[in-house]
Design brief:
Blueprint: H1 2-42
Length: about 45
């Protein structure tokens, strides 16, 4: 049971880190999109 809790905590931590990375990536993509939209409008 103890090992299961430890494994669960590791998975939870890994999930949190992946979620964090995904949010950063999403933010980067949105920034690029906004930049390109502004550039297209400005032409």
């Amino acid at each position: 049971m103890d090992q299961l809790k430890k494994h669960n905590k590791l998975l939870s931590t890994e999930f949190y880190q992946l979620e964090e990375s995904l949010l950063k990536y999403e933010h980067k993509c949105q920034s690029l999109r906004d930049f390109n939209v502004i550039k297209a409008i400005s032409i």
